[in-house]
Amino acid sequence: MSANESSEAGCRSEVRPSNDTCIQKELSVTASVISMTVGIFSNGLALFILIKSYNRIRIRSRASFLLFASSLVVTDLLGHVINGSLVLFVYSSHKRWETFDPYHIVCSIFGVCMVFFGLSPLFLGSAMAVERCIGVTRPIFHSTVLAPHHMKRLLGLTWLLAVVVALLPVLLWRPYKVQSSRSFCFFHLEEPKDWLDVFLPLLFSLLGLLALLVSIVCNTLTSCTLLQARLRRKLHRRGTSYHVEMICQLLAIMLVSCVCWGPLLIYVIIVSTRAKDESTSFNLLMVVRMATWNQILDPWVYILLRRAVMKKIFMLFYCCWGSKSRSLHRWQCSMLRSSVETSNSGGDPSQYHCPGRLPLSDTAIKSIT
């Protein structure tokens, strides 16, 4: 990706743009368009599924979880639409920030959106983990104290915290800065002027890591509680299936967030606390692009990790495994009969029968539903 206007001008003046700068620019635009398109489609499909489930469900704890999950998908969808549109606008303007943004208004909006749509999924995932942990470990408290309006207030506070953190650089007169790649705006990471330039990116990273840590702790406690209840058979089967489905989704969200956002959050801390090098711009761009995949993978957690889908996968796996088991069963029976015929010539081979394979019971199917 080009880092200055001269290289961009040279790219535009070429009759056949075959140099590395032009190729990288085209690849960057293509990657942004693909990421935006896939993200909008994935989040739109997941939102449709969640809204359909939310209107059908009658369990309060399940409804609270679906409320947070739908809010997470809506946030990811808006992030793809707004941030993707800003990226395409910057590329269509040939990244001439001095021309189309002389007062740094677009850069400030871009930076606020980057931080808000980055922290919101992490905060929402953490809030979902806390809500499920309370619902499983303290079900009476959850059903009597945590009313639906409390969940909505918690959702609003989560978004408000992300907005405050995103607006802090603007309110403290430490505006967001165009990065060296000239394709997006972010915190002032290179050559900070004072402690505020170091504090703001550190606050962003530490809050993100704290949200991931809370998710890990709460999901671990919830999983252990569900496992103990499953072993002791204290929970009703149907109620347990709802909890297992939600925990599988939470664990998948936590894993995706750690893989996608962990490198960016750690990298910002490292860059903010040590001297910079020449590869800072390239590395920052790579980890930012990696973080955007969180908004693409999150909706597929709700699309794939549903009871209906997992049931079909289980049935498909069982059918494939069952066909091999039947072939092995017939081979073992034939070998047993031939062995009986040769070793016990005086006996009746029909009395040596091979027991049939047990059919798939309803309990095996219902255990995943």
From TrEMBL:
User: Could you tell me which Pfam families the record lists for this protein?
Assistant: 7tm_1
Where does it live in the cell?
A: Cell membrane
Q: Where are the transmembrane segments?
A: 27-51, 63-91, 103-124, 154-173, 198-227, 247-270, 282-305
Against PROSITE patterns, the record matches this protein to: G_PROTEIN_RECEP_F1_1, G_PROTEIN_RECEP_F1_2
Keyword annotations from UniProtKB, A to Z: Cell membrane, Disulfide bond, G-protein coupled receptor, Glycoprotein, Membrane, Phosphoprotein, Receptor, Transducer, Transmembrane, Transmembrane helix
Q: How does it sit in the membrane?
A: Multi-pass membrane protein
Which ranges carry the G-protein coupled receptors family 1 profile domain?
Answer: 42-302
Q: What is the protein's name according to its record?
A: Prostaglandin F2-alpha receptor
**Which species does the entry assign this protein to?**
Anabas testudineus (Climbing perch)
Q: What is the lineage of its organism?
A: Eukaryota, Metazoa, Chordata, Craniata, Vertebrata
